[in-house]
Amino acid sequence: MIKLNVFGLSKFYGDKLALDDVAFSADAGDFIGLLGANGAGKSTLIKCLSGVLTPSGGDARLNGHSIVTSRKWCQHQIGYLPESPSGFEDLTVAEFLKFSATSHGLSGRIRNQSVSKVCEELQLDSIFGSRLADLSKGLRQRVWLAQALVHNPPILFLDEPTDGLDPVQKVALRRHILSIAKNKIVLMSTHILEEAEAMCGRLLIMNAGRIVTDGAIQTFLDPAGQLESSVINYAS
Predict the structure, then answer these.
(1) What string of pLDDT tens digits covers the 236 residues of the chain?
(2) Residue 76, Cβ neighbours under 10 Å: how many?
(3) Which of 166, 221, 227, 236 counts the highest number of beta carbons within 10 A?
(4) Which residues pair with 33 in a beta bridge?
(5) Could you tell me which residues come within 8 angstroms of residue 114 by beta carbon, excluding any fewer than 6 positions away?
(6) Dihedral in degrees, nearest 10, Cα atoms 170, 159, 210, 202
(7) Which fold has domain 3-77+154-235?
(8) What is the pTM of this model?
(9) How far is residue 97's CA from residue 148's CA, in Å, rounded to a whole number?
């Protein structure tokens, strides 16, 4: 079991404040939707929490370990799916996933078993020897999700995980994420409100780099069970 505590997190890009005193906590089993307009700070927050960016102030702690001073330990506990992932185009799926597993501290038989398991779960066996450059966007997205899951992390940070996928691919990916999320902390940025309605138990809504509201999803739903009016009110 793992706990995430975020306090006073800020991030400047030059003199522009992108994150402003962000604070929240989460426990295993929390599936949190991160909502807000473009430029609200969602991707910057996820990058700071996953150790991709160093915050300008504040910290995030995983079971007491700081993402700033114990980044390597924390990143072994984290699966991170970036928005519109790209790179490693010349690697095959097998090479990419083995590289990802190794970077998270797995080796030998355990690494190979973990790669085989995630490929089976995400139905990637048929493209195991294919280069990432030769894959469709939907398949590439599944491979990048696989690299976030290969080490079975207790925390997942997912930035627009179904962006650009067709409706069938979106449904399949959502189902898989939900199936493996039960005992994890999941923070998922999305601009698709129906996705948040279908997947999340809690929402954080951001505006201008701050979390403006945080609560159970039921408190944001209108009588028709939709989020649109609440999100627009808080995010604008």
Answers:
(1) 789 999 999 999 999 999 999 999 999 999 999 999 989 999 999 999 999 999 999 999 999 999 999 999 999 999 999 988 889 999 999 999 999 999 999 999 999 999 999 999 898 999 999 999 999 888 999 999 999 999 999 999 999 998 878 888 888 889 889 998 889 999 999 988 989 999 999 999 999 999 999 999 999 888 888 888 877 777 77
(2) 15
(3) 227
(4) 188, 203
(5) 101, 106, 150, 151, 152
(6) 50
(7) Rossmann fold (3.40.50)
(8) 0.93
(9) 9
- Domains of the chain, by residue range, sit at 3-77+154-235, 88-153
Beta carbons of 57 and 47 less than 8 angstroms apart: no
Please give the single-letter amino acid code of residue 166: D
Measured CA to CA, the distance from residue 68 to residue 192 in angstroms comes to 31
Q: Are 110 and 116 in contact (CB under 8 A)?
A: no
CA distance 3 to 207: 25
| Alpha-carbon gap, residue 51 to 71, rounded angstroms | 6
Question: Contact at 8 Å (CB) between 57 and 8?
Answer: yes
| 20 and 210 Cβ atoms separated by less than 8 Å | yes
- What tokens appear for 225 in the block? 């069970």
